[in-house]
Specification:
Layout: H1 9-18, H2 41-47, H3 50-53, E1 59-62, H4 69-77, E2 82-87, H5 90-119, H6 122-139, H7 152-165, H8 194-203, E3 207-211, H9 217-220, E4 225-229, H10 252-267, E5 271-277, H11 288-292, E6 297-304, E7 316-323
Parallel strand pairs: 1-2, 1-4, 2-3, 4-5
Antiparallel strand pairs: 5-7, 6-7
Helix pairs in contact: 5-7, 5-8, 6-7
C-alpha cells in the first residue's frame, strides 16, 4: 500500500539554515536540459531524507545527471564529502569533466564565441549557428570519449554555444546522435557565464564523474549514501518520446529494470529518491509507477512543462516522486 506523510516546512527550513555551507558558491546548472529540476528544488528540499539534513549522509549519487540541478543544490547546502555523478550521454559528461579540470581554457573559448556571435547580423548568426551545428555533428566521429584530452575543451565549448543559441535552449538529437535543434532568436545570449562556470568547477571538486548507465551504481555504491534518480521521462502522451532528446532509448522495460534496482538498493540500506513525469497527467487510469513502486512512498507535486515547441503547452503538470523513507 502506498504510504503518505507530511513535513513541517518551518522545521525543514530551520535545519537547512543551521547547516554549515563551505561549498555554497552560487553554482547553478550551466545548460538547459530536458527534465531539469531547478523549478522543483524548493519542494525537493522538503523531500530529502532527514539523515541528509542531520549530516549523517556523506555521499551523494546521481545516475542520471542531466543539468545537475539537484546535485548543485545538495553539494552546496549539505555537508557531504563526495558525489558520484553519471550519465550515458558522452557529450554531457565530457563537458562536466572539462569544467572540472580545465574551466579557464573553456571560458577562453566561450568568450571568443560570444564576442564573435554578438557582432553578427541576424542573418549571419543563423548561418554561423548552422555551420557550428554541422561541425559539431561531424566532429563526433573523431572524439575519443573515454580518454580525457585537450580536444574535449573546444568540443565542450561548442556544446555550450549550441545550447545557449538554439531554439528554446533545447538539447535534442535524433536516433543517429545528430544534434538537430534549430537556431533560436535571441538578441544577446549569454554564451559565457564566467562566474557560474568558475563556481561549477569549484563544487565539482567533490565529484567523481563517469560516462555510464544507471546500472553502474550497483557496483559503485558502498553504503552511507543518498541516491537520486531522475531517469528519462516516461512519455506522458502517445506522441511524445524520449528519443527526441537522446539517441538512447529508455522505455518501459528500462523503467522496470530501474524499479528492480531501486528495490535492491533499498535492501542495501541506501536512502533513495526518484522522480518522473506522472502518466496520470494524460490518463488518470495509468497506474504504471504506482504499481512498480507500490512498496514505497509516492507523492505527486506540481511542476511546469518548460520545454515544448508550443509555448501554450508549457503549463502545469504533475511530477511523481518516490522515496524509500
Amino acid at each position: 500500500m502506498t504510504k503518505s506523510y507530511s513535513i513541517n516546512n518551518e522545521e525543514s527550513s530551520n535545519v537547512l539554515e543551521d547547516l554549515f555551507q563551505p561549498y555554497n558558491v552560487g553554482a547553478r546548472p550551466f545548460l538547459k536540459w530536458a527534465g531539469g529540476k531547478s523549478q522543483l528544488l524548493f519542494k525537493f528540499q522538503e523531500l530529502y531524507p532527514k539523515e541528509l539534513k542531520a549530516r549523517r549522509i556523506k555521499k551523494y549519487y546521481e545516475p542520471f545527471l542531466g543539468s545537475g540541478a539537484v546535485f548543485f543544490d545538495i553539494v552546496q547546502n549539505f555537508d557531504i564529502d563526495a558525489a558520484f555523478l553519471y550519465d550515458i550521454n558522452e557529450e554531457l559528461i565530457i563537458t562536466y569533466r572539462v569544467i572540472q579540470q580545465d574551466v579557464n581554457k573553456l571560458i577562453d573559448f566561450l568568450k571568443r564565441y560570444q564576442k564573435t556571435y554578438h557582432k553578427l547580423t541576424k542573418i549571419q548568426r543563423k548561418q554561423y549557428f548552422y555551420d557550428q551545428r554541422h561541425s559539431y555533428n561531424t566532429g563526433r566521429f573523431t572524439v575519443d570519449y573515454d580518454k580525457y584530452s585537450e580536444s574535449w575543451i573546444p568540443r565542450a565549448a561548442q556544446l555550450i554555444f549550441l545550447n545557449k543559441t538554439c531554439f528554446n535552449g533545447l538539447y535534442r538529437v535524433n536516433s543517429k546522435g545528430e544534434f538537430n535543434t534549430p537556431v533560436g532568436d535571441y538578441d544577446k545570449p549569454t554564451i559565457c557565464d564566467e562566474m557560474n562556470l568558475l563556481a561549477v568547477s569549484k563544487v565539482l571538486e567533490k565529484a567523481t564523474i563517469r560516462k555510464a548507465d544507471f546500472k553502474q551504481i550497483k557496483k559503485d555504491y558502498a553504503g552511507d549514501g543518498f541516491i537520486y534518480f531522475d531517469p528519462p521521462y516516461r512519455p506522458i502522451s502517445k506522441t511524445a518520446s524520449f528519443k527526441s532528446y537522446s539517441k538512447h532509448d529508455f522505455g518501459d522495460s528500462e523503467q522496470l529494470q530501474l524499479a528492480e534496482l531501486f528495490t535492491r538498493l533499498n535492501e542495501k540500506g541506501a536512502q533513495l529518491m526518484l522522480s518522473n513525469s506522472d502518466p496520470k497527467n494524460i490518463d488518470p487510469s495509468d497506474n504504471f509507477f504506482d504499481e512498480i513502486y507500490q512498496a514505497f512512498n509516492i507523492q505527486r507535486i506540481p511542476a511546469k512543462r518548460m520545454i515544448n515547441s508550443d509555448a501554450s503547452k508549457r503549463g502545469e503538470i504533475q511530477e511523481i516522486v518516490i522515496t524509500n523513507y
